[in-house]
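Thought: the user wants the 3D structure for the chain below. I'll pass the sequence to the structure tool as-is, report back what it returns, then summarize two notable features.
Action: structure_tool
Action Input:
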Amino acid sequence: MNRVAVAGLAVVALLAGLAVGMFVAGATGPSNTVPANSGLVAGIGSTPPSTAPTPTASVEPSIAPTPSPTPTPAPTPTPAPTPVLVAAPLTGRLVSPAEAARYPIAVMIDDLSPARPQSGFSAASVVWQAPAEGGIPRYMLVFQENIPTDVGPVRSARYYYIAWAAELKAIYAHAGGSPQALATLRAQGNGKLVYNADEFRWGGSFHRISTRFSPHNLYTSGKSLRGIAKAIGVKDKALKWPWTFAPDLPLPLRPTGGRIEVAYRANAIRYDYDRKTNSYLRSVTTEKKQIDAATGQRVAPKNVVVMLMSFGPLNDGSHKHRLEAKVVGSGTAWIATNGTTIKGTWKKSSLTSPTRFFDGNGKPVVLTVGQTFVNVMEIGTKVVTVAGKAPLPHSFPLGLDPR
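Observation:
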């Protein structure tokens, strides 16, 4: 058999095998079959059909979540420093160190009827009142932590007022004075006892008002008085003072009512205790309710002292019935504070030493924080004290019953 015949037989055999395979595939179901009319034979000159790809799950792109904005905390404010407060030496009030160190200034004030109402009481730390000419009284207002507005009417000096101002080596403001007082100021008014601030020398620091007649119209001010202090060259500094102070007694422990009455001849003075404010409402003859003309406020000190002292005629040749007083020594005193008045003593050991107050057992008196009025009276003066009504026991809060 030649090579062509053999090749032909091989093609026939291959076609027969393909036919059988297609039959078998048709009998068992289609599987990637080629349609009969395609004119193609699988595997010969054709591209086999592609198998459908396995579907792949769609993956969304990952988006990072936007972080929530973190609130920026507000800056913590720096707390303001707590102001430092100290006790003012003459009143015990809590004030700034600068106020507590202000140099004390004493001013002589008129007390005749045409001088009322006077100005400056509300700002004074201590007020002295004593007889002057013929028993008619005069005031000396002592300013320390407070700077007053108007002060006046300003009147003349007396030796015993200089002695009280000398306890503080104060700037002593006045308009003239008795021969005894002026001689003392010429000799010792350069800081040995006080600093002399006479209106005759410091006239620019005083002025006269038009609504009153002379000599009841001479006034000054806190600003002018501080100006005198600056001109003299005195420096503010811490002041040592022996008086001691305590806060107001709690309201439930305070009595109701009570009063004190004294008189400088025709000028009657009365203090009515006010339980609510824990102060003594002051009244004087002709004015009744005493008012500070500079502020319109009622004169109402926290403490009242009545001290008896020996007075006598000065005999300075003036025939003005001036007095002198025995300011150094001791004597009887009534001290009223927190609505209660006790009888004790006053003591002053030298011209420049402070006047101090003691109870019946000789212990130093504790005053209430605030202003003190000192009424100096001639020995033999009638002093009327009326006790207030004590609080009822059931009104005491727990732990405050004093019994």
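Final Answer: Structure generated. Residues 3-28 form the longest helix (26 residues). The CA atoms of residues 315 and 322 lie 7 Å apart.
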